[in-house]
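Q: Structure tokens for this one, please.
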Amino acid sequence: MKVAGAVFVVLAVVVGVVPLFSDCHSQGNAISLPNGTSIPMKCHWTGRAELAVAGPLFFAGGLMAASRRKHVLRATSALGVVLGAFAILLPTALIGVCGNPEMICNLVMKPTLIFAGLLAVGTGLAGLAYLRGDGPETPGLEG
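A: Here is the predicted structure, written as tokens:
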């Protein structure tokens, strides 16, 4: 389960860092209002919201790598599934990205977040499948 924890940590770094450098605001693009002010596009807010997914995913990965208790590993695996789903939903359904398919957020940020979310969901489900027994501890996790 240390490998699954390391995967969660790496995915948390990807989910947290990639949007910072691949949203339209980081490339100098913004929405200009008629009064002359400019506001960030919605992909910027998706990137900010992904930080709220990356933090708990990083914590869950660290906890999963450090723990040997079956109930903790189950809980962190389930948390990884939920956070992976949110990593997918934020750029697709909840907040979204810019409407122009040629913007960097559509070309880099959205596919990366979807892929990282799918990997987190898959890793969490694999962890839950591995831990499906009824015993208090999983064989092979002692020591």
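A few notes: The chain has a mean pLDDT of 91. The beta strands are 31-32, 38-39.
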